[in-house]
Amino acid sequence: MTTLEGLGHGLSVALQPNVLIYSLFGALLGTFVGVLPGIGAMAAITLLLPITYYISSEAALVMLAGVYYGAQYGGAVASILLRLPGTPQSAVTTLDGYPLARQGRAGVALFTAMISSFAGSILGIVILVMLAGWLAGMATAFGAAEYAAMMIMGLIAASTIGSARPSKSLAMVVVGLILGCVGTDVNSGVQRLTFGQTELMDGINLVALAMGLFGVAEVIANIRDADRHGPPDRVTLRQLIPTRQDVGQMIAPITRGTTLGGFFGALPGTGSTISSFLSYALERRVSRHPERFGNGAIEGIAGPEAANNSASITAFVPTLTLGIPGDPIMALMLGALIIHGIQPGPMMLEARPDMFWGLVVSFGIGNLFLLILNLPLIGIWVSMLRIPFRWLYPAIIVFICLGVYSVRGSVFDIAMVAGIGAIGYALALASFSPALLLLGFVLGPLIETNLRRAMLISRGDPMIFLERPIACGFVIATLALILVPVMKTVLKARTNRAAN
Amino acid sequence: MRRDYHDILWGGFLALLGLGVAGYAAIHYDLGSLRRMGPGFFPVSLGVILAALGAAIALPAFWRKGELRPFAGRELLGVIAALLLFALLMNRAGIVITAAVVTLTASVVAPRPGILWRLVLAAAVTLLTWAIFILALEMTIPVWPWSR
């Protein structure tokens, strides 16, 4: 199937009325949770997972994807108006968005965020289409050793790139990997780390873990402070119109941000959050007036917003073509696909073209919806920020409970959510990343299976990882990812000592 | 504050957890060989790595200044109590009573005095829950204590 045929085929899937409705619903719900600080795309997708049992697999995936990129649009609204990032990806948008809002230019900041998000998504789709075919072709050259090496590289990349303390990030990944071991071992049938609990035989429930780490922990962290920010000023449609100078300042950052986000989104382990931070750093570096950053530079919004949307689209590349989720949200998507009996991987483009191309086209349609709807809806989003958090969070708790309960009617899972939530809150308080724990949890069983298979194939010779060129490339990249921060720390300690 | 206590405590805990997992797995599960890895191989290796990382987090923190973040203990208790009440009540009392109790419990720790708004909120959330999950989604879960 050529790309053009594929897109035509995808259009016929994405334009089915029920798929269209779920796409619109997902995108709007995503914007809603993105706008509200304290609930992220992660929690929203987890809440929706049980509902997807009841609808067609195309509609389900299209809806979940809509929540994901919709939240990227919404996240910017709270960042700009309240200096409270609605989602982690939009944290950098506070740096220049909030100062602009203080200067009475909130409308222009919001417009910049939305048009940049849209441009980033559309160009991300182009990159996705180009990369997916190429990667799916290459993936047939992947054996167990390559998969294992690539996943390990992804985990190390996620914990070292952009992390202030890589040892803490790595520790979270390893805790996740250990939690992934809980349950029946596939090869031997041994019950591992279940301590006799029959509820743990199938392993820890992904929904319970995600709800505890992201839903419960974030609610606890937000109860006390969420209402302290005053309500934002009104924003009218007229204020959204940018000047000619503003538009001129957007184009180059959008282009750079999209390219950067498209690249990092497609790498497993690095996601949209890192892309938006890197894009901000890049814009500041190439700017002729870096002093404007932090005081309301349009470029500081345009670049990162384009980057995180582009990355969230290309993040589907490794998930769909290799079956390797690059970030925790993609891990949930992978879970949703598997629930619907679809095994993502190199064969998916051939075996389920309706699914793949339908998703791709729906990205475009969903983003168009968001752009058209969000401009008139901006007044509604702004007024939503006036809802006090104390009204919202008890409802969120009830929805979390019902979401987890509906998966398999188990109250044991709810008790798990309570325990995981308490630990997750304490971990986040000490700046440990719960997202990395979840990533380790999802990738753990895949890594173990492929590692065991690779060693079986090579008759116990670990050289298999160096003899095969692709695997060797991943090993070298992994070593570089570990050694560079270590060297940096050593050098820093030395200069500090010299200074003292 | 003189030391980074967050990192010392968590680093130490993670190191012990790693040792615990490695020790437990080594005793209870077959390690196997490199060629044919047993069920114990992966957990034991991970436990050892976690122990090392935990030490790497805790030890440098002894010589580093840190700030103690305020711990939202009250909020934590309220939310966890609400969740545990759901686990306790759901199969016995049905969704209507459970949703009301959970909402009330969770709202106790909200930073705003008053009882009336809490009751109104509980009623609203219960109604919404019933409308979404029973009326719209037709989920098969107990609605009342007597409808099991």
UniProtKB/TrEMBL annotation, chain A:
Residues 20-439 form the DUF112 domain. Pfam families: TctA. InterPro entries: DUF112_TM (IPR002823). The chain crosses the membrane at residues 20-49, 61-82, 108-135, 170-190, 202-223, 260-282, 329-349, 355-379, 391-408, 414-444, 465-487. Signal peptide: none annotated. Keywords: Membrane, Transmembrane, Transmembrane helix. The keyword Iron does not apply. The keyword Chloroplast does not apply. This is TctA family transporter. It comes from Paracoccus saliphilus.
Automatic annotation (TrEMBL), chain B:
The keyword Phosphoprotein does not apply. Residues 11-142 form the DUF1468 domain. It comes from the Bacteria. InterPro entries: DUF1468. The chain crosses the membrane at residues 7-29, 41-64, 76-109, 115-137. Coiled coil: none annotated. It holds the Pfam family TctB. Keywords: Membrane, Transmembrane, Transmembrane helix. This is Tripartite tricarboxylate transporter TctB family protein. It comes from Paracoccus saliphilus.
